[in-house]
From TrEMBL:
GO terms for molecular function: hydrolase activity, hydrolyzing O-glycosyl compounds. SUPFAM superfamilies: (Trans)glycosidases, beta-Galactosidase/glucuronidase domain, Galactose-binding domain-like. Signal peptide: none annotated. Belongs to the glycosyl hydrolase 2 family. The keyword Hydrolase applies. It comes from Paenibacillus agaridevorans. Residues 185-290 form the Glycoside hydrolase family 2 immunoglobulin-like beta-sandwich domain. This is Glycoside hydrolase family 2. GO terms for biological process: carbohydrate metabolic process.
Length: 588
């Protein structure tokens, strides 16, 4: 089951056009440790020292290079053929993710750039292209080991340590291009209102002339191929909104087709832009009618309490690290997670490929979307974090599977938040900025402990046994949320100056059980047998589920990641324990 808009490997599933070109594959490549490339004008005459397979970074085996040593500047170059018949259209170059700062030249002319390792960006190449000829694209990427830079689990030292892994430098998600008209739909923000049974489209339209020029944008909504509603809007300025009442012109069982994990119903929508009656743009998308809210200490999905059985997912692969090896690998991960009885993932310290979110939308897997952390508090870190986080929230907004935003984790980058008012105010600012763009999802301000204004109080605790968990939590809710005691023997649930407001409480990290090995680590003592593993897993999971004020959990984790060997699966996705037993415990 897919949406009407689905195209295999299409990198932006929320706004799909048919005329596109995938630029992944072989590129020329070169290191620039002395940072002399621009001075020597490599953008004009590029002499490669390597070939690299994009979108895999040079640190990975999948790239064809496999050098893990950090290099602060790297260059890419390739030729593209631009057909003569594309003249008169705009040629847009898209990068789904480049870590960290990119500068892009087309035929030696600087065409644009971007800063931020996890957000997608686009560049209009048209002024620099020769139509009907071959054209050269050259990209310089500058990375750093700065802890002011949002880097997530990427190490900033020469070697891996603790839970930090090989860095990711350069292009690490799909590069592609499309040909579009000057007058086109640049973006649409899709917001469902379940209680009113309407959907709101906030349009951003490019090429709107002053005074208007007979532009009309029509939204055609269908459900499983059946017509639901058509709404047309005259476009006289770049940003306009329309609300579509889904109650009208809809009959039968699809009239109120909500999105849930059990029934991930999705509406298809086609956007058609006409100018003087001529179609100038056509794009496909989809949306889910679902609502996330909080009442009486519970998280509600579509006005009904939902118990969240999440698993922590860092999205690493053996030979390609942060980059999924292919779309099938993303689907496999989702299927394995659901097979184990989990209804959601906490995507940890990574902004995942949009195709992963698409398949979560289609298959019904809940997602917590979490920003990659900085690791020092500084004005530069505040600026870099804020800019990129707002880009990401905008880009991911339309995915119904995302039910929670997580900008901060375990006080990373805000290490003195317990008492430091500047760091507290920073998290408050991010909370309110997120809410200003998306008031409809809960925001967890500092996942794990030392919360400020979080909508959910989440706690991390790697206590080894179910008995130990119950001793710490069963009768101690008031002491934990009041700050009378810590939540896990060393961290307080709330930062100083903040009080508990009746928020839902979720144990968002626990477990991390590892088998005996001298090649890595897990949490607590390593176990020697499957039986010992399952006994500990069952005891912890059942203990959490038995505490009535806890409304969900997140187990650490799906797979091993490099030196961290506490996954339910190995890094190459082989089960370590019987998955049907994991499922039975989760659903029991």
């Amino acid at each position: 089951m897919t949406t009407k808009s689905y195209i295999k490997d299409y990198p932006r599933p929320q706004l799909v056009r048919g005329d596109w070109l995938n630029l992944n594959g072989d590129w020329d490549f070169r290191f620039d440790d002395a940072n002399v490339g621009e001075k020597e004008k490599w953008q004009e005459t590029f002499e490669a020292t390597h070939r690299i397979t994009v979108p895999f970074t040079y640190e990975t085996k999948a790239s064809g290079i496999g050098i893990e040593t950090f290099h602060p500047q790297v260059w890419y170059s390739r030729m593209i053929a631009v057909p003569a018949e594309a003249a008169g259209k705009r040629a847009i170059l898209h990068f789904q993710a480049v870590d960290y700062e990119a500068k892009v030249w087309v035929n030696g002319e600087l065409a644009g750039g971007h800063q931020g390792g996890y957000a997608a960006f686009s560049i209009d190449m048209t002024p620099y292209l020769a139509f009907g000829a071959d054209n050269r694209i050259t990209v310089k990427v500058t990375d750093s080991d700065s802890c002011y830079q949002p880097r997530g689990k990427q190490r900033w030292t020469p070697d891996n340590f603790e839970c930090f892994y090989v860095q990711t430098t350069g292009i690490w998600q799909t590069v592609w291009m499309e040909y579009v008209e000057e007058k086109r739909l640049d973006a649409v923000k899709i917001t469902p209102d379940l209680d009113r049974h309407i959907v709101r489209f906030d349009y951003e339209v490019n090429g709107v002339a002053a005074g208007g020029d007979d532009l009309l944008l029509e939204a055609i909504v269908t459900f499983k191929g059946r017509p639901v509603k058509r709404v047309a809007l005259g476009i006289d300025r770049p940003c306009l909104s329309v609300e579509v009442d889904l109650n009208h012109e809809a009959t039968g069982p699809w009239k109120r087709a909500y999105w849930t994990p059990a029934r991930p119903n999705l509406y298809d929508v086609e956007f058609v832009l006409t100018s003087g009656g001529r179609v100038v743009d056509r794009a496909l998308s989809y949306f889910g009618m679902r609502k996330i809210s909080i009442e009486n200490g519970k998280v509600l999905l579509n006005n009904t309490p939902i118990y969240q059985r999440l698993i922590l997912d860092q999205g690493y692969w053996t030979d390609s690290h942060l980059t999924p090896p292919n779309e099938e690998a993303l689907i496999e991960d989702i299927d394995l997670i659901m097979e184990m009885g989990y209804n959601g993932v906490r995507k940890h310290m990574k902004i995942e490929d949009a195709r992963f979110l698409y398949w979560c939308d289609v298959k019904g897997l809940l997602v917590w979307s979490e920003m990659a952390a900085t690791f020092e508090f500084h004005d530069r870190a505040v600026n870099a974090f804020t800019k990129e986080w707002l880009e990401i929230v905008k880009q991911q907004h339309n995915h119904p599977s995302i039910i929670t935003w997580v900008p901060f984790n375990e006080s990373w980058g805000i290490g003195n938040i317990l008492r430091d008012e500047r760091q507290q105010k920073f998290t408050e600012g991010i909370y309110h900025l997120t809410k200003s763009f998306d008031p409809h999802r809960p925001v967890i301000v500092n996942d794990g402990w030392e919360h400020t204004v979080s909508d959910i109080v989440t706690l991390h605790d790697y206590v080894a046994t179910g008995e130990g968990f119950l001793q710490r939590y069963r009768d101690n809710k008031d002491a934990i949320v009041s700050g009378e005691t810590t939540c896990n023997q060393w961290k307080y649930a709330l930062a100083k100056g903040y009080s508990y407001r009746g928020q839902p409480i979720i144990i968002s990290e626990f477990g991390g059980i590892a088998f005996q090995s001298d090649k890595g680590w897990g949490y607590g003592e390593q176990v020697a047998s499957v039986e010992a593993f399952m006994e500990r897993f069952k005891g912890l999971t059942q203990a959490i589920k038995s505490v009535d004020y806890i409304c969900g959990y997140c187990y650490t984790q799906v797979t091993d990641v490099q030196q961290e060997i506490n996954g339910l699966l190995t890094e190459d996705r082989k089960p370590k324990v019987p998955l049907e037993q994991i499922r039975a415990i989760n659903l029991g």
